[in-house]
Design a protein that fits this description.
alpha/beta, Nucleotidyltransferase, domain 5, 15 helices
Length: 374
Amino acid sequence: MAAIDNNGAAVVLQSVMRPSKERPDPAELYAALDLGTNSCRMLIAQPKGGQFHVVDSFSKSVQLGRGLERHGSLSRASIDRTIAALIICQRKLAHHKVKRMRLVATEACRRASNGAEFMRRVKGATGLELEIIRPEEEARLAVVSCAPLVSQKTEQLLVVDIGGGSTELVWLDLTKIPPKERSRAIMRLQAGFEKGRETPFPNVKVVDWISVPCGVATLKDQFSDVVDDHARFALMSCHVEEQITGFAPYHLSAGTAPRPEFQIIGTSGTVTTVAASHLGLKRYDRNKVDGLRMTSGQIDSVIRDYISMGDAGRRADPRIGRDRQALIMSGVAILQTFMRLWPTDRLSVADRGLREGLLYSQMSADGVLEDGPV
């Protein structure tokens, strides 16, 4: 597969490597790339015990889905921005001589009428062969990435992944799993999952999962004509709730009082930004944010603060950041909808997502992760 190195010379890059039957060298590097509606993110990592060590990373707001809600296709400018970012990713992969990788695209490419054409352009310009994954796999990978944050006390788990073009919800019943095995059981969700049935790993039950076409970018575009912050926020929240009425736990558990055995894990830029605002971080610190536990009341307080600031105040707030400020109100409208329906004192903030899920899945399938505590 042809690609371009740092000096402009042609190189050969093998992408989307599937696990082989032969056990790889534990020192071998793995890569995971997530091309979403708003961002292009990549991690290059090496297995280390039951986790992995990040060797290199890349993250860029490319706004691939900008205008998708109105036009149904990816714009030329969005495609050009994204390909420029992917060229940087290709150079990093070639520099580190990565052979084992998964490079995936999600909602924007699933929905765009020119998604297949865009994939061909990416391959021609970079040599990278991306795969458009289904919503079910996107949901599963989000769950796998959050496994280390699952409490031993958790019996009912809701994983919320707020993306740029879609949002995934997965509800798991862990009551039949010994407390010390719950994180490891979720880590082993390799073969997908089916609603209402127990997974191959003993007794992990997927109560339900749903993927709705409401993400921070698409929801912002959909309600861009509403000027007033309060009105726009209320309309977005109502719209999100309408989209999830088919999710079984909406009818079974919505509105109940917080339960000590119930945990929500939120994985997205929205959730980490809310956490950073709650902590008052003027410079983002992953070590302080990842794994932070927040209550519904703390989240509501941050959201009220965002609304009172107005657009100018949010743009000037260093806790939000330039890349996030235009999307934060649509993101928190999605988040608050879930917190209102399923109030909890145990929302765990996950600065992790599809990339981590892709890495865990590859490494676990290859048998290069130690089978110890997560």
